[in-house]
Specification:
- The chain has 2 helices and 2 strands.
- It is mainly α.
- Strands 1-2 form a two-stranded antiparallel sheet.
Length: 97
Amino acid sequence: MTRGRDGKIVERLPIFPAPCRTDKGCPKGNPESPRSLMSENERCYEHYRECRAVNQFPDDPVVRRNAAAIRDVEDLAEHRRQEDLQSELLRHAMGMK
């Protein structure tokens, strides 16, 4: 969304679509299919981060289940980061860019 000099919203020209409307897409998805957490999951993740920060989780089966699921995703993301780093280092060592 862009505003003109008068402060009113200026519609985007069809030949210049928003990034979420292109083939490449947007990291955040689009309004119909966002790539972000729902508000409930956002609160759950925030609770997990707070508990993890102080290393103290409530003795609750739902909290345990959610924490295990979040930890699995964090571990997978870290594993992929390590693989990407190793690949980049290998390419650099072999003189490839």
